[in-house]
Structures are given as C-alpha cells and as structure tokens.
Amino acid sequence: MLQKQRSRLTARGKAHAPAFAALGDETRLALVAKLSSGQPRSISQLTKGSKLTRQAITKHLRVLENVGIVHSAHAGRESLFEFDPTPIDEMIEYLDFVSEQWDHALARLKSFIED
Amino acid sequence: MNDRIEKRIELKAPISRVWRAVTDYREFGEWFRVKLNGPFVPGQVSRGWITYPGYEHVKWEAVVQKMEPERLFSFTWPHPSSFEKAEYAQADHSKDPATLVEFRFEKTAGGTLLVLTESGFDNIPGDFRLEAFRRNEGGWAEQMKNIERYVAKAA
Fold first, then answer.
1. In this structure, what DSSP letter does residue B58 have?
2. What's the domain range around B31?
3. pTM value?
4. Chain A window 52-111: which residues touch B at a Cβ cutoff of 8 Å?
C-alpha cells in the first residue's frame, strides 16, 4: 500500500502553476462550480448573474486557464471555456496521501501512549 | 478548495503525558519514526533523518513555531517534489514549499483530545504534485460536493 502510494507520489507531474492558489478565490471557485457540469460556456454566459464585469470574469478565467483547470476554444467569434478536472484531482490525490500518512502516524502515537 | 487537513484523536492518557509524547524529541521520534538531533526549540530548525522503512534517505528539517505547554505545538515543514531516492538526492531542498503543522491539546473526561491540522497547501506549486491518475467517478462526485460546500460557505 505504502509502496504503491510512494510510486504515485514520485510520479512525475507536469509543470503547471499553483492550482491551489488559483482556487483560493470565491469568484474563481464559483466559475469552476458553474463549469463543472461539463458544459462549455462563453464569457457572456459566465458573466450573467455576476456583479463583475466581463473583463474581470475574463481575467479570472485566464488565471484558471494558466493552471489547466479550464481550457478555452474559439467557437466563431466567441471563446468557450471548458472545465478540466485533472489538476484538482492531482491536488486531492496529494492531500489524500498526506492525510493518510497522518492517520498512520497518529495511530502509532496512540499505541505508543496507550500500550 | 479545502486545502487543509484536520485529524482529531482521543487518547486515554492525561494531557501531560500526551504533551510529552508529542514534544519530547526522543518520544516524537519513536512514533513519528524520525531520528532527531536535539530538542524542539521555538524559532529553531529541528534536524534529523526519517527512520520509516523506505524513507531513510529523507531528512527531517522543520522549523519549530510555537510551544505553549499542554496547549499548542506547531512547526512548518517542507514538501519535497519527490521522495524517490535518486530524485530526492538531486533536488535543491532549500526551495521546497512548506506547510504548517499544528497539534492542539484539550483535556477530556477520558483523557486528551489531540487535534492535528496541516495547512498551507496552496503554497505548493503544481509541479510538486502528482501526475494525473485514473479517475473514478465516485471520487470526482465527492470532490465536486466539497467544492460546492466551499462555495456555499464562501458566498
């Protein structure tokens, strides 16, 4: 089990900017939530219902694009943005790995103290 | 995105015993599986080597933050991009991003509640994390729920 995790952890990741930091923003999280249905959406569609301007939304989308959480494609005169779960999966995998190491360490602490 | 880990564990021992097991460097080393060079001192770097089988090439280097007796013990520690022996040996660890680990101690009827948190994962750049894995739908649905909960809370 540990061996398997270690090989996972050591798997070479492709370089991309901090996805955690990109999601540490309410507007961007809301955009991700909207796009997570899998349906690609235009900037107009994503701006609708928001207090922010089209330009502001575009800026946030570019941040998400830079870390690979969204991809854009041109459809006629419009850009369509689409969600890519890969970087978030990677983050969650990593957190799960660290989390599991703590479970093991705390279980060892418990037997160290109580046995 | 929830970028912190929290664990709560009930220990059948008085708080003074748990405090010692966590903050005495020899006792910490026993259960954490690390050979430390000396005691934990706030503001100072704690050095040693991991003794966990398969990780013996990994050094321990944490900066002790706070030691408030029987209340709080915290340190920051680095997350290397790889634990694989050859890659680990080659890497420049002075730039490894760090997270904050906190142990909080609370007295309970049956002994001690220990609350561990690790936070600051947003400091860790993408190239320090893992390659894409085979996704399972259940896992992803769960992750989306987490994001929704986060969004709902933030709104």
1. P
2. 5-154
3. 0.71
4. 67-68, 85-95, 97-99, 102-103, 105-106, 108-111
